[in-house]
Design brief:
The protein has two domains: 126 residues, Aspartate Aminotransferase, domain 1; 238 residues, Type I PLP-dependent aspartate aminotransferase-like (Major domain) (Aspartate Aminotransferase, domain 2). Helices cover 38% and strands 15% of the residues. The strands form four sheets. Strands 2-8-7-6-5-3-4 form a seven-stranded mixed β-sheet, with helices on both faces. Strands 9-10-15-12 form a four-stranded antiparallel β-sheet. With 391 residues, it is an alpha/beta fold.
Length: 391
């Protein structure tokens, strides 16, 4: 493998060894169906419920308020389509931010095409929604407000509690996609006062293909996939016992190490930024300077696309802030929404550290990026390759 330093933890995380160890028996000896009435089934059901309790403990809710899904995308879809299906006919409005992940934005787009009014909140230069903008559009016709807790590209944190107050004053529900936040910062549903919250396993050292949706007790939701009565009838399909066990263990581990590890990663992130500033005149920080994830550093390299810098620093695995289609780079919609011009947005790179990142790696990576930036032509055009964002 050419890359030596992994700096793309916002795209995905490795599965923790302790998580793998917890999962393994449920692929072989403990293979029962949780709905079966015999011992094999009862043992599997106990494992599912233990996983549910572990997830619930991390975010401070009752275990029965956790619904297991296949990941963040399904959780977002269930929250959005499920709540709108259950909404009253005189409440069909949706309010979302302009910087949502496609797993939220595209369901909203579909509902808009079907006649549901959708208002999209702008963000300021730091990528944050202004509560006053929400106050101006959330009213008695609004059924759902959906705004992500932490942006996957910049790490910027949104004022979810303020938005929850505005939504609830109008009688609307609020959902937050917390896929990037859970496991990185303390997330408590009571503090946020949300009705629905999305968790993605592979963002917190559990496997890909498992996630959860917090559904506040009493919240009306209809399933958008039909089948048997699994997961309180909200998500039919035989439960994925090994992966649920893995997600539960990952949440338990996160709860144990969250405060200290968050502080450590914040220190690495800030040291990374200081080294880049010292070596690259005019480098720009994208996102809020303080209200952001402790592991995330989104920067724009001056005078050249971020893709070119990463191509020259082959020892680093990170994401650019653009997508490439047929040789033409397209700037990040998130960065454009924050007011960045095309050149600055195309110069963006997302560097996200994680549990495996060391101070020595940060120092080496900073040196490699500085040397790469110095080596590339400052008027380089688009090339036919881009790593893009693993979002």
């Amino acid at each position: 493998m050419e890359h030596r330093i992994y700096l793309d933890y916002n795209a995905t995380t490795p599965v923790e060894a302790e998580v793998v160890e917890a999962m393994l028996p449920w692929f072989t000896a403990k293979f029962g169906n949780p709905s079966s009435p015999h011992d094999y089934g009862r043992i599997a059901r106990q494992a599912v419920e233990q996983g549910r309790s572990q997830v619930a403990a991390l975010i401070g809710c009752a275990s029965e308020e956790i619904v297991f899904t296949s990941g963040g995308t399904e959780s977002n879809n269930l929250a959005i389509f499920g709540s709108m299906e259950a909404a009253r006919q005189d409440r069909r409005g949706i309010v979302a931010s302009i910087v949502e992940h496609p797993a939220t934005a595209r369901p909203c787009d579909r509902l808009e095409r079907e006649g549901y009014p959708v208002a999209r909140l702008p963000v300021d230069a730091a990528g944050r929604v202004r509560p006053g903008d929400a106050k101006a559009v959330v009213d008695g016709r609004t059924a759902l407000v959906t705004v992500m807790l932490a942006n996957n590209e910049t790490g910027t944190l949104q004022p979810i509690r303020d938005l929850a107050r505005i939504a609830h004053e109008a009688g609307a529900l609020i959902h937050t996609d917390a896929a990037q936040a859970v496991g990185k910062i303390p997330v408590q549903v009571g503090d946020l006062d949300v009705d629905l919250l999305t968790i993605a396993g592979h963002k917190l050292y559990a496997p890909k293909g498992v996630g959860a949706l917090y559904v506040r007790s009493g919240t009306k939701l209809r399933p958008f996939v039909l089948g048997a009565s699994h997961e309180r009838g909200l998500r039919p399909g035989t439960e994925n016992v090994p992966y649920i066990v893995g997600l539960g263990m990952a949440c338990e581990i996160a709860g144990r190490i969250l405060v200290g590890e968050s502080k450590r990663q914040e220190g690495l992130r800030d040291e990374f930024w200081a080294l880049l500033v010292a070596g690259i005149p005019g480098i720009r920080l994208n996102g809020h300077p303080t209200e952001r994830l402790p592991n995330t550093l989104n920067v724009s390299f001056p005078g050249t696309p971020g893709r070119s810098v990463l191509e020259a620093a082959r020892e680093i695995a990170a994401s650019t802030g653009s997508a490439c289609h047929e040789g033409i780079d397209t700037p990040s919609g998130v960065l454009k929404a924050m007011g960045l011009d095309d050149a600055t947005a195309l110069g963006a790179v997302r560097l996200s550290v994680g549990r495996g990142t060391t101070g020595a790696q940060v120092a080496e990576a900073a040196g490699a990026l500085i040397n790469a930036w110095k080596s590339v032509p400052k008027d380089s055009g688009s090339k036919p390759k881009s790593e893009g964002l693993g979002i």
